[in-house]
Amino acid sequence: MGGDDVLGLPDAERFVVLLVDGLGRDLLRGREQLAPFLCALLDAPASRAITAGVPSTTATSVTSLGTGLTPGQHGLAGYTFRFGGRLLNALLWEDV
Questions:
Q1: In what order do the strands lie in the sheet with 80-83?
Q2: Model confidence over 41-74: pLDDT tens digits?
Q3: Domain boundary assignment for the chain
Q4: What are the CA-CA distances from residue 96 to residues 4, 15, 63, 74, 86 (Å)?
Q5: How confident is the prediction for the chain on average, in pLDDT?
C-alpha cells in the first residue's frame, strides 16, 4: 500500500509522523536537557530526516508530505492560493 519507500522505513501497518513546525533536527540536536524525549527520538531505529522542498513554507511542505507530490505537481507554492472563485490564505483558512 502507498508509494515508493524513499526513506527506507521498515514494513509496518502504521507510522507516526511528528511534525513540529520550525523545529529541525539540527536545531534539536544538543538540547537534551530542554527536550529529552524529542532528542531521544532522533536516534530511534526508524527515525529519518526529511528535506523540505522549495519553497519551504509550512503550507507547501505539509501539502507535499500529505500528497507525496512536489510543489510543482500539487500547485500550492505559498500561503495564498485560488480555490474555486476565492483567494484563500492557507494559514488562516479565510479569504484574502
A1: 80-83, 86-89, 94-95
A2: 888 887 878 788 888 888 888 888 888 899 999 8
A3: 1-50
A4: 37, 35, 20, 21, 8
A5: 84
Whether the Cβ atoms of residue 95 and residue 79 lie closer than 8 Å to each other: no
- Cα 88 from Cα 76, distance rounded (Å): 11
Distance CA 83, CA 96 (A): 12
pLDDT at 1 over 50: no
pTM of the complete model beyond 0.85: no
**Contact yes or no for 18/41 (Cβ under 8 A):** yes
Residues 6+ apart with CB under 8 A from 19: 62, 65
DSSP string over 36-77: HHHHHHHTSTT-------SS--HHHHHHHHHH---HHHH---
